[in-house]
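From the pipeline queue, job 12 of 40. The input is one protein chain; the requested action is below.

Action: predict structure.
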Amino acid sequence: MKRLVSLAATMLLAGLAVTCGGVGVGVGPSEGPKVIVLGFDGLDPALTRQLIDEGRLPNFARLETMGGFTELETTIPPHSPVAWSSFITGMDPGGHGIFDFLHRDPETMIPYPSTAAASSGGLYLDVGPWQFPLTGGDYERFRHGTPFWDVLEEHGVRTTVIRMPANFPVSGTASRELSGMGTSDVLGTDGTFTFYTSELFADRDISGGDIVELDIYDNVVEAELLGPPNPLLREPEQLTVPFTLYLDPETESAKIELGDQEIVLEVGEWSDWLEVDFEMMPTQHLRGICRMYLRAIEPEFELYVSPIDHDPISPAAPISTPPDFAAELAEAVDRFYTEGMPEDTKTLTEGVFTPDEFLAQAKIAGDEVAEQYGYVLDRFLEQRGGFLFYYFGNVDQIGHVRWRSRDPEHPAYDPESDAAHADLIPTLYEGLDAIVGQTLDRLEAEAGLGDGGADEPLLIAMSDHGFASWRRAFHLNAWLFERGYLTARSPDPYADEGFLLNIDWDNTRAYGIGFSGLYVNLRGRERDGTVTAAERLDLVRELKRELLAVVDPETGQRAITEVHLREDYAFQEGAAIGPDLIVGYGQGYRGATESASGEVVGEVFSDNDSPWSGDHMMDHRLVPGVLLLSRPLGRPARSIVDLPGSILAEYGVGEFPSLAGGAATGSP
């Protein structure tokens, strides 16, 4: 995660130096049927089945009657960037190269985000304190393989791909495209909020945000919005934008002045989108947008400012195809969150928001996506044929932090606050059902759905994985430390900074990074490898046997129910990124967050007392996805890896991916 922050300046320079052209803007009238795929991240088949049977999802029931409802096998491991990369490419992780949310560079042993980052590069002209980009840096997307929509475009099918995860920067090959999960804010992070408060000693390190202490004089607050380092300075300084608040305790409101914008918020009220203009030099500006939430005035002043996103009217990052498509969406509906996961879950997990405050923010994000869908659907239906993918992530993100409201046996279940939200997630499913109904009605009215013709439209509602309660955490690195496979520099957990920094590499044979990955400290691959190639296979088989035998002494249950060796995958020749073993956790278990971020000491087992109470990063057999169809597929799909090939078959396109296009492996 820190790598993206440090490369924020490169991202801005890339946007300043290069003006993108209109790539992939269509090849004329589309042939073949209209196919719409609604990507419902985290939709669980068991809960979907239950709610259909209870009559709460009438439009899902319509789909089931028309074309069927089945489970859709997810990937190994069942992580969102892994599964969506498989959907994009028709490959398993061994082909597309995305194995987790976090990978490591074996030459430096530094962790980094798995899907994309800004890369340094470009030429600059130095003039005094300034540096002017002559050529741009670039964005590096780590996913391999050919997106299935590339093939459709090559066959004359106009494609619209909205918020596809693991597709930042955008591929540039769809007719219309907006990036999704993996898209950064202007800082280059996956979303960093700021919480301003007058409370003394409130400043503390939190994940996903910054806390800023402020002084109040005569009910006036002077503050700054925090941007990235100024990339045009040879010695970068942090960009800031001042703003002023005038507090009125009597009416419990505040007037906020930001640039030439002036708004009044009452306590408990959210602002609309506010424009943020960071001046890098008099002729160059970085433009962003944010929302503000006035949480309190007394006894302490508290103001939340959302992550500063790229302004879709004028983004400094490649978030859409053609480049002005994001602006078109904003002008047609309104400005919108451009970061990949707009539901700010860290406000809840870090104790900045109450559950109700988080849900209010998440509703704003979800409503934006649903409203924008109406515009995108209208434009799509104007075409003669074509393909549309539209992603909805609200249920997944809310499910992560509110799943325990469905699980009274969860160790962190609160009978008072959680019982009040017992029906929250089923209600969110009803919102997705309304999206399905909206789409079916429009297709029936305008596109001949149900007429039985050769070009009859097809509606697919699918998810990348299901969901389960996460009750107990397993600290993989602590287990390796306890069993003697890993040696720590310091056994003191308070001295462990994570990011693999506390490992004595000369005396370590195996280590974990990410939520499912276990790596051998291999000589010739890792920077300080100790295990020879001849020893490696015996070691991973030994680790697999021991992991599958692990029993939680608290519950008497097996914590790990599947372990896959890298030999189970068709790796690209010479690939070093993939783990040597992928760990699949049993029902109720998941890898500890501390281990995933590279900490190495702590308790092997612990109760999960975090608001992050639901998950899917476990044994893939426990969390299959969903597949609902308006008519049967000509080429059935058993797994998410199969599905893109089935979509292409609807247009008469043969096997996907082609063997010439990469290491296609089919279902794992």
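Job complete. The mean pLDDT is 90.
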